[in-house]
Amino acid sequence: MIFLGIDWGKIFSVPFWLEVNPGELSDRFEKIFLIVLFFCYAFYGLSKLLNRNLKIKHEFIRAKFWQKAANYFLTVAIAFTFIFFFRYEAIPVLGGRFWIFLWLVMDFIWLGYLLKYYFIDMPKYLAELENKKKLGKYLK
After folding, report:
1. What is the distance between the alpha carbons of residues 41 and 73, in angstroms, rounded to a whole number?
2. What end-to-end distance do the CA atoms of the chain give, in Å?
3. CA-wise closest residue to 87 among 133, 29, 18
4. Taking the model in full, what pTM does it have?
5. DSSP characters over 51-87
6. Where in the chain are the domains?
7. What are the tens digits of pLDDT across the range 63-97?
């Protein structure tokens, strides 16, 4: 089945991902690349805005999460910009599909750490802060 200029039957084969000169991008695939880039940069801007607002409210633990998220989205966007450029220009080796595969693997690993911080570490830090505030009111 060919969709977006890719034979999806080959997508799970190793030679497909290790092809050094994968050819030109289709128009639809270019649009998908650009949409992903737009959302990465938009989420970066939103994360920076939320980080700044939380720092103003002195909620530094939540602000730290949004700073991590902003770093994640900016790094993803810049790396994907380079991958898109090399794929668009059909530069051998640097435009290979294996860069997209590596980018996706590293992305999901980093996203896992980000979600771990949000769901596991941040509630623990907030609970510790709440306990310190409770004890602090008796020490004054």
Report:
1. 7
2. 71
3. 29
4. 0.84
5. HHHHHHTT-HHHHHHHHHHHHHHHHHHHHHHHHHHHH
6. 26-139
7. 999 999 999 999 999 998 998 898 888 888 888 88
